[in-house]
Design a protein that fits this description.
680 residues, alpha+beta, 9-stranded mixed beta sheet, 8-stranded parallel barrel, 38 strands, 34% strand
Length: 680
Amino acid sequence: MKTTLLPKNLRCIGITLVLCSMATAQDAAPAVPVNPLASPTITINADQVKGKSSPLLYGIMTEEINYSYDGGIYGELIANRAFKDNADTATHWGLSVENGAVGDISLDPSTPLNSALKTSLKFNITAAGTAQRVSLSNDGFWGIPVRPATTYHASFYAKAAPGFRGPLTIAIASNESPTLFAQAEVPALTADWKKYEVELTTNADITPSKNNRFIIWTTSAGTIWLQNVSLFPPTFKNRANGNRPDIMALLDEYHPAFLRFPGGNYLEGNTLATRFNWKETVGDIAQRPGHMDDAWRYHSSDGMGLLEFLEWCEDLKMQPLLAVYAGLALRNGGEIAPGEALQPYVQDALDEIEYTIGDVNTKWGAQRAKDGHPAPFALNYVEIGNEDWRGNYNGRFTQIFDAIKAKYPQLQLIDASVHSPNNGKLTSLVKDRRPDVQDSHLYTRSEQQSEAASFDYDKYDRSGPKVFEGEWATRVGAPTPNMHGAIGDAAYMTGLERNSDIVIMASYAPLFVNVNPGGMQWPTDLIGYDALNSYGSPAFYAQVMFNNNRGDEILTSTADNVGSATWQAPAANGGQAPAPRELPTLYQVATRDSKTGLIYLKVINPLGTARDVHFDIKGAASVAANGESVIMKADSLDDTNNLAEPKKVIPVTAKESGFAPSFNRTLAPYSINIFKISTQ
């Protein structure tokens, strides 16, 4: 993921220049009426198929940023469950005492659970009794969510010093009142490490809330040690160590075709030691050491490990797009030289692929079966690194490419060193091999930049490798995009879809953000949430609209007399600004289902005025009068969704009549429009 900082934009709207205003990337464009003489016409040539649209076009990209996994889609509710977030103090853990009880907590590196989890929490109770309770609590990821009639699974490892009799009470409690929502008891502990598990079930009459904490308390004096303290709510499809149901339900509404993981900068880390080391992310969570996500400055439990990514794909019927480590550290450590030094990491990539697709008779296929998934996963695409723009990537890519192709010739391998299109070509560091796919990343800071970029692939060299637009976004709105960002995204997607014969995959980034203060490292993000609730942004629903309403054939279509917007692109790196560019004031693309003849016509109106548009469908034997529309609109480009109003800007599906070879429609201001028209 890269940051592009741009100065203010000059936006001018009209058939000729009628108004110019200075607008930052976060400002809404002025509502300026189009010249009334303009009468836009969109022509769809049903007898001219430009190409086949990729079935994998729209997918998702993910990495541990903005608390996307821990504190996000990963179901775990305990923050710092393994006491590794801070070497000096037990962050997220607190102690309270009642009626003269005395106790303390401390990190204890001398009492490890195992070689992966070497530091335990020492819970020392000096004075306690029937009315003298000592409580250890965890505040979760900005709270512990509580819902009615819900069973939570708590587990932890513990051992006791001689003389501690127990018991321990496990509970979920409110921070705002003495209310205990659920509790259970562990009668006694042993002198050796042992795993303890309890179920906590809430009553049906409680109100959902998030300002709560997880508690372990005792009224007995003595010393105990704790490690890997966990609390899980029900998960999507009831998977053990699984994902949060509400966020998964949002993704299921989108129907993404693939998941690119484990991510961008999270794959490499700032150093070799902080890369995503997949072998330390499989197996029992109590055997996973976790690692510092220093690219985004917080610790990762690695509860979301390789198998969990693959099961995420399985649950949502997505193809896995696996990114393997390619020998780059973002900062300290730099690059590993091709050759002997790189070879252990080449083998590591081969082992990772074997874990994914190897049968149970292979070493890593057997490990996957031991971890609970005997069947191999389907894997077609592997990316070699991420945003790898360092000098020796060609050599590292070649070495890894050759090794994977030799063992798995069926896999499509992706070049991660390219930059966005320039005169129809992508710039790549790879010279000695032809990659199957090239991964381009594009972040724009204004709607207008995205509109301009929607034409980038129209002149792309079709003889080159296929393209994966692996990270892209219109970065307008925070923590999640507003309608301004959604309009820019939709305009850009018309270009992706129009060229989806060559752009075979695309994924917006970042996918997730925890909207609590301190939860965000990067705006703008597709889906937002706190501990209790989640929502999709207008840009998310634009993606839902595009992906769920798309044919497999790209039709030739043109937009005439739509008017123009004169846009002045900012200067790059303090240089001279390029010449002003004329942008259309409508964006469109048409695809068709080759089996049913259903045409999906997408039209974007980025202006603050309604547009009367004429449509001609040529080359179709018949056009059904009745059809359907899916429309998302807003009163202002600043309109957005959030936790308080999660459905303020969403698409609306309606029946339509009056379709014909020639028909008219009025497009609402600031609107994304899809018309579904049956033809033969």
